[in-house]
Amino acid sequence: MSTSFAMIDGEGPESYQKHSKYQGGLLEAAKEKINEAISMKLDIDFTSNLVNIADFGCSTGPNTFRAVQTIIDAVEHNYYLKESYLHETEFQVFFNDSSNNDFNTLFETLPPARKYFVIGVPGSFFGHVLPRRSLHVGVSSYSLHFVSKIPKEIKDRDSHVWNKDIHCTGFSKEVVKAYLDQYKIDMGSFLNARAQELVSGGLLLLLGSCLPNGVQMSETLNGMMIDCIGSSLNDIAKESLIDQEKLDTFKLPIYVAYAGEINQIIDDNGCYTIEKFDIISYENEEIPLDPDFLTVSFKVTIGGIVSSQFGRHVMEKTFEVVKTKTQEMIPQLANARPGMQYLIVLRRI
Ligand SMILES: C[S@@+](CC[C@H](N)C(=O)[O-])C[C@H]1O[C@@H](n2cnc3c(N)ncnc32)[C@H](O)[C@@H]1O
């Protein structure tokens, strides 16, 4: 079975659609800065009557709709300020995600009062998914910590680089290097693809989590919860519900980078100017230390990947174990080292 990156689908209580407030909090907190960036930095042909916007890794709503509306409001305001609002401007929005994303739910829940045309774009954002020089503003929120594939050597039990954990904990230098090398390739491909699609003067807005210097992934709440998913899968393997050998090769396609690593990759790419690289703090940044909430939050994001490897039944069982373990882990989680959230604004040269 190939790995799916897709979030848990549908509109049920344990779907990404119903359980993505945490990710949405960053967009809300960054709204003013996005407005400011679009007013000051977007440098496109303001006589054109069609503005193309794309969300890369949109999943299902409501966050993608919020991201897109924030951009449209800011562009409209900008057009108005530049006194070029002589004719009716039309907006066209490209919603991109992997082809196994739940596009049906996305389209069924589109805001009824929206004033934009909608196009679904299935396909990996590490490749070129839009026509050249057609995009004015692109956004990608909480999607760029995914890598396109797991480095081979860390899956191989016979390799000295074999990773016994299911993710990059940050403690083994060799494992970090293998993930980081893949991340650099993927981010480079993402930036190159967007560079082909963006018009000169167009903007790319990137939002997500990164690690503060000196903090290892496994010391953060996200890292501790992922370790808990790994240990729950091990319990399931002991019950012979999954094959231990298969579990030993299972690794999450996720690398949470340090801010400096992201900055370096963008600099090396050379197709953009970095207009903003801000660390954003906001009120609901902290995930509530409630076992139910934590379990569902990680189930809707990581459950899809577990399901694609071991099946839905095993995934459900795993998260029952995660919930029990999380109850016992609350004091440890309370001492987790904080991660960081970023807003990066890039302008295509
Ligand atoms: C955590 S969700 C973020 C959704 C939304 N942007 C938000 O802020 O709530 C990450 C999304 O990235 C998508 N994704 C991961 N890798 C991808 C790729 N290579 N191409 C397209 N989408 C990808 C996943 O399918 C998932 O829907």
Describe the structure.
The protein is of the alpha/beta class and 349 residues long. The chain is built from ten helices and seven strands. The chain has a single domain (21-348), classed as Rossmann fold, CATH 3.40.50.150. The chain has helices at residues 21-41, 63-81, 103-108, 152-155, 173-197, 221-238, 244-248, 259-269, 291-310, 312-334, and strands at residues 50-56, 90-97, 117-122, 135-141, 198-210, 272-280, 340-348. A seven-stranded mixed sheet has the order 3-2-1-4-5-7-6, with helices on both faces. Helix 2 (63-81) links the parallel strand 1 and strand 2 (90-97). Helix 1 (21-41) runs parallel beside helix 2 (63-81), helix 5 crosses helix 8 (259-269) and helix 6 (221-238) crosses helix 10 (312-334). The longest helix has 25 residues, at 173-197. The two termini are 41 Å apart. The model has no long low-confidence stretch (mean pLDDT 94). The structure holds S-adenosylmethionine (SAM).
Helical fraction equals 40-55%
| Overall CATH class | Alpha Beta
- How is the main sheet built? 7 strands, mixed
Could you name the CATH homologous superfamily?
A: Vaccinia Virus protein VP39
- How many domains would you count in the coordinates? 1
Counting DSSP H or I runs of 4 or more residues, the number of helices is: 10
The CATH topology annotation reads as Rossmann fold
Shape: globular
In whole angstroms, the N-to-C terminal distance is: 41 Å
Average pLDDT value?
94
* Strand content range: 15-25%
Q: List the bound ligands.
A: S-adenosylmethionine
The string of secondary-structure elements, in order, is HEHEHEEHHEHHHEHHE
Can you tell me the CATH architecture?
3-Layer(aba) Sandwich
Give the low-pLDDT segments. none
Our Rg estimate from Cα atoms comes to: 20 Å
Which structural category do the helix and sheet elements fall into? alpha/beta
Order of strands across the biggest sheet?
A: 3-2-1-4-5-7-6
Count all strands and give the number.
7
